[in-house]
Known about the structure:
The complex is a heterodimer. By secondary structure, chain A is of the alpha/beta class.
Amino acid sequence: MGMGELRHVDEYRRQSGAAQLRLRLADICDPARTYRVMEICGGHTHTIYRHGLSDHLPDNVRFVHGPGCPVCVLPKGRIDDAMALALDEDVTLCAYGDVLRVPGSEGSMLDARARGADIRMVYSPLDALRLAREHPELEVVFLAIGFETTAPATAATVLDAERDAISNFSVICNHVLVVPPMQALLNSPDVAIDGLIGPGHVSAIIGCTPYLPLVEQFGLPLVVAGFEPLDLLAALVMVVEQLNDARHEVENQYSRVVPWEPNPVARALFDDVFAIRETFEWRGLGPIPRSGFRISDRLADFDAERRYGVVGRVVPDPRACRCGDVLRGAIEPTDCRIFGTACTPEHPVGSCMVSSEGACAAYFQFGRGLAGQP
Amino acid sequence: MAHGAGGGASRRLIEEICLPRLGNDLLSPLADAALFTIDGIGLAITTDAFVVRPLRFPGGSIGALAVHGTVNDLAVSGACPVVLSAAFVVEDGLPIATLADELDAMAAAARTSRVRIGACDTKVVERGAADGLYVITTGVGRQVAVPALDATRIRPGDNIVISGSVADHGIAVLLAREELHINAAVRSDSASVWPLAQALLASLGTDLRCMRDPTRGGVATTLNEFALSAGLRIEVSEAAVPVHDSTRGACELLGLDPLYVANEGCLVAVVAPGSTAAALDVLRSVAGGPGRAGGSEAALIGEVTSGADGRVIGLTTFGGRRIIDLLEGDPLPRIC
């Protein structure tokens, strides 16, 4: 490998690096205690199971899966609201692939599409805006979803729409913020964790400083980690080292992408395009104050909720579904009675099974908890 | 859409709806081609519909694909492809030049695959009904493999070899849709695998258990089909599966697993352990050419174990293990 030739994928998956980190972990783990480390971000959950990382951890180290899957935490009512736009208001609804398969009260958006609703998969909000631009006869609504990671793209798209006076475009906004649910979770009595692995790409936007008050308040170490297997192992080592030293600090393992301070461009976009909702309903966590974005008043024309008078349905989760407990890390997917039986990726009951970042989907896809598991 | 993806939903459609109504001893094995005899001469027949969008993509087009896909189903069934029929469903408004180009592509593919197109039919449907052009081909070949290739012949200890790199076709088609604005030097591998199949058949005899061309649903689906048919477990080493760098990069960017992406010029074979080295040598000695797949990147990717659960287990590059299950849903619609 030559100088300057960084192979972003292979470099962070190298076996030899993993072996070294695993040895270090085994070395520094104190057999007299357990280390329960919550990884907030669904992408981390996915990496852990995709690469079989938990296969080689010391027995007293456990990953606990947190609520960092923006599709998983979206309540059914919000799915129904979006579907209603496509079915009843003759809107062309654009959404990311994952969201299309989440079951609402009457099937998923893919089912609605098979029934004739105009629902399209996009990879970026700009695709939805382009559709509106090129087809003035369509009323295009983009279903915005994601943590602070994807919010800047939505914001930039809304500003483009304003600049170019695209009147047949609006956004139904489900962006959420990562710190409020972390706070709610850490306050919750049945969640017992020793340390945190902080979300990688959210932190690329918000930096590391927003975690400082959390770490102070709860006395837990937090290490922001990247998404490659080596990143996660390295971050885990850093968490364990802090716990052994009785430190509780914010550290940044993902420094090649994540800055210490918040991204000022993103901050400016948020201040202009979004307002923070007084409260937002989170699947499994209930309502959390000031935890989600809506479109700001200045840009109300691009707010689909106001444009179409979206009712805001509240739909309780099916009783057998324990997505909420999974999202809080209170149980593992395999503790849910319907995991792998009534609830599978093919017919998901809850959103943790649908989204590629959901803990249940990761468990199922990579085979944990099934008969004949490796 | 999921019912057309080649994974779990497709399988259920076939097993629960199609087989009960059409099933017979020729169809029910659900192999790539049906094997039958007429007056003692072993023949094979297969059919396929091609609905790829866009019609043209780097490395291929619907016309070439329609020949290669059907030729390959015969080849991996141990039959030398002989003659094809082709039916065209043309959308009103398709430029004649476009149709002519596809017919040229078919003619060229038929030449390099050494088959003749003996029968054709053309229908035109109203605008909006066929996305330009759909092509359906049926192929007939002469059985060469004795005894017939069959996944039930797979034994514990058998090895899985692959003739070349994966995921090129599906990614090339996806990128050609120009919805993603990603530039990558990825070309479809659309080509006849008969030279590869023929080489294996000639050298390995009964040590060649069965072959398949991993199209929709990718290598993962093919391995699951083997495992289920044999009632055995298959372990595949992910690091050993060849993937071109730019294809892997595109997969990473799009969140796609190369194991589930379609191929159109690739062959997976199950061989007895003692013949694995010979199989790889023989594959690697087959030089590729226009419309003919070569085996220079052939690799040993896994083995059959004695587990009886019909599962496919992936050994990750990290030394961990994961289950490689049948696909649900449709990650890449209309790639073949």
